[in-house]
C-alpha cells in the first residue's frame, strides 16, 4: 500500500518545483498550502504508521525532503517577489527592450588627420610617430634654426621646468630629425601629432594644436615632384577641380621654401572673411630640404635631395566642418562632439 503515498510525495514535489507566483497573494496561498498549520504535507506524516517496515525510513526521508523543498521554494519565491517590487519602485522594467548603446564619435581633428594620412599612405608614405617632449637639438638645431632665431624665444616655446634643453615640440618638423638620424634614404614618411606654442588662446589660435609633417628623400627628388604631390593631395582633400598656388616663403629648414594656398572661392561673405578677400587660403608650408639639415642628420647631401611640408590640422578641420572657434576642438563638450557621430 506504501506506493500510493510515495506517488503522492512525487506529485507534490513536482508541484512545488513548478510553482510560480506574481503577487503577494499568491505567495500567501503557497505558504498556506505547503507550510501553514493545516498544510497538505501534514496528513502524510501521519501515514508513516501505515508504511511497511522495510519502507519506513525511505518514506521518512522522502517526506522530510518534501518539507525542505517547500520551505526553500517559499524563500525563493519570496525573494523573487521582493526583487520585482524593488525594481518597480525604482522604475526598472526588466522586460523592456534595452536602450540603444551610446556610441562615441570620432573627433573632427582625428577625422581630418585620418583623411590626410589616408591620402599620403596611398602614395607610399608611412606614418612616423614621435615624442611630444623633445630636446632642443631635434626641434631646432638639427632643423637649421640658429641659436638667435626668434622661434627659439621663450615666448613661443614651452620649456620644461628648470630646463633649457627639454621642451614641448613646437612643430612636427622635429620628427624629420628623428627619422633622418635613424634611417637612410629612400625616406617617405608623414608624421601626424600634437604640437605646442606659447600663444594667447583665441577663436583662431590655441597653445596646442595638430600638424602633419611630410618628408621625402631620395636621389633626384625635385621641386616639381613636391608640387605634383601636393597638388594631388589638395585635389583628394578638397575636390578634383581644386587649384593650388605656391608662394615663395622662408623656413630655416628648407631652401627654397614656399607656402601653398588652395583656391577657396569668393562667393559668400564667409569666403571673403576666411580668405581675407583674396579667395586663396593658405594650408601648408613646404620646400626643398636644406642641405644643412641633411648634413646635420647624417645624410649625404651630395647624393640625396628631398622635399618636406608641414600643415596644420585644426584650420582644415574648421573649414571642412564649418567650425567657427578653435576652442570647440579642445573643450570636449559632448554636445559639440556628438555632432560628428555619423561622420566616418
Ligand atoms: N614647421 C613649420 C611650422 O610649424 C611648417 C613647415 C614648413 C614644415 C615647411 C615643413 C616645411 O616641413 O618644409 O610652421
Q: What small molecules are bound in this structure?
A: 3,4-dihydroxyphenylalanine
Structural domain count: 2
Report the structural category. Answer: alpha+beta
Could you report the average pLDDT, rounded to the nearest whole number? 91
Instruction: For the largest sheet, list the strands in their spatial order.
Output: 1-4-5-9-8-7-6
The CATH class of the largest domain = Alpha Beta
Instruction: Based on the coordinates given, report the CATH architecture of the largest domain.
Output: 2-Layer Sandwich
Determine the CATH topology of the largest domain: BirA Bifunctional Protein, domain 2
Topology:
Layout: H1 2-18, H2 24-35, H3 42-46, H4 53-89, H5 108-122, E1 126-127, E2 133-135, H6 136-141, E3 166-168, H7 173-180, E4 187-196, E5 208-218, H8 223-238, E6 244-251, E7 254-263, H9 269-274, E8 280-289, H10 291-296, E9 305-312, H11 314-321, H12 328-331, H13 334-337
Parallel strand pairs: 1-4
Antiparallel strand pairs: 2-3, 4-5, 5-9, 6-7, 7-8, 8-9
Helix pairs in contact: 1-4, 2-4, 5-11
Bound molecules: 3,4-dihydroxyphenylalanine (DAH).
3,4-dihydroxyphenylalanine binds next to strand 8 and strand 9.
Structure description:
The chain starts with a helix and ends in a 7-residue tail after the last helix. The mean pLDDT is 91. With 344 residues, it is of the alpha+beta class. It has helices at residues 2-18, 24-35, 42-46, 53-89, 108-122, 136-141, 173-180, 223-238, 269-274, 291-296, 314-321, 328-331, 334-337, and strands spanning 126-127, 133-135, 166-168, 187-196, 208-218, 244-251, 254-263, 280-289, 305-312. The chain binds 3,4-dihydroxyphenylalanine. 3,4-dihydroxyphenylalanine is lined by residues 171, 173, 213, 251, 253-254, 285-287, 308-310.
Amino acid at each position: 500500500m506504501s506506493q500510493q503515498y510515495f506517488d503522492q510525495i512525487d506529485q507534490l514535489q513536482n508541484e512545488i518545483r513548478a510553482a510560480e507566483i506574481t503577487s503577494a497573494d499568491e505567495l500567501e496561498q503557497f505558504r498556506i498550502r505547503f507550510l501553514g498549520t493545516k498544510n497538505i504535507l501534514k496528513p502524510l506524516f501521519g501515514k508513516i504508521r501505515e508504511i511497511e517496515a522495510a519502507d519506513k525510513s525511505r518514506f521518512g526521508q522522502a517526506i522530510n525532503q518534501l518539507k525542505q523543498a517547500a520551505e526553500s521554494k517559499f524563500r525563493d519565491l519570496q525573494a523573487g517577489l521582493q526583487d520585482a517590487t524593488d525594481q518597480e519602485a525604482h522604475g526598472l522594467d526588466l522586460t523592456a527592450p534595452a536602450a540603444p548603446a551610446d556610441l562615441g564619435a570620432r573627433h573632427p581633428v582625428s577625422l581630418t588627420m585620418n583623411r590626410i594620412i589616408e591620402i599620403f599612405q596611398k602614395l607610399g608614405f608611412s606614418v612616423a610617430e614621435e615624442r611630444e617632449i623633445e630636446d632642443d637639438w631635434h626641434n631646432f638645431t638639427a632643423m637649421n634654426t640658429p641659436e638667435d632665431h626668434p622661434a627659439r624665444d621663450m615666448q613661443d616655446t614651452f620649456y620644461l621646468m628648470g630646463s633649457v634643453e627639454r621642451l614641448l615640440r613646437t612643430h612636427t618638423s622635429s620628427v624629420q630629425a628623428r627619422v633622418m638620424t635613424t634611417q637612410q634614404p629612400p625616406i617617405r614618411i608623414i608624421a601626424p601629432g600634437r604640437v605646442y606654442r606659447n600663444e594667447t588662446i583665441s577663436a583662431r589660435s590655441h597653445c596646442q594644436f595638430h600638424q602633419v609633417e611630410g618628408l621625402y628623400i631620395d636621389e633626384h627628388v625635385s621641386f616639381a615632384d613636391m608640387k605634383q604631390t601636393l597638388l594631388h593631395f589638395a585635389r583628394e582633400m578638397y575636390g578634383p577641380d581644386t587649384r593650388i598656388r605656391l608662394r615663395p616663403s622662408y623656413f630655416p629648414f628648407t631652401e627654397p621654401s614656399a607656402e601653398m594656398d588652395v583656391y577657396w572661392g569668393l562667393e559668400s561673405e564667409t569666403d571673403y572673411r576666411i580668405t581675407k578677400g583674396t579667395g586663396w587660403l593658405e594650408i601648408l608650408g613646404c620646400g626643398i630640404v636644406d642641405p644643412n639639415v641633411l648634413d646635420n642628420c647624417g645624410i649625404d647631401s651630395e647624393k640625396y635631395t628631398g622635399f618636406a611640408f608641414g600643415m596644420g590640422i585644426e584650420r582644415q578641420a574648421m573649414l571642412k566642418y564649418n567650425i567657427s572657434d578653435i576652442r570647440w576642438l579642445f573643450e570636449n563638450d559632448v554636445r559639440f562632439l556628438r555632432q560628428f557621430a555619423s561622420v566616418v
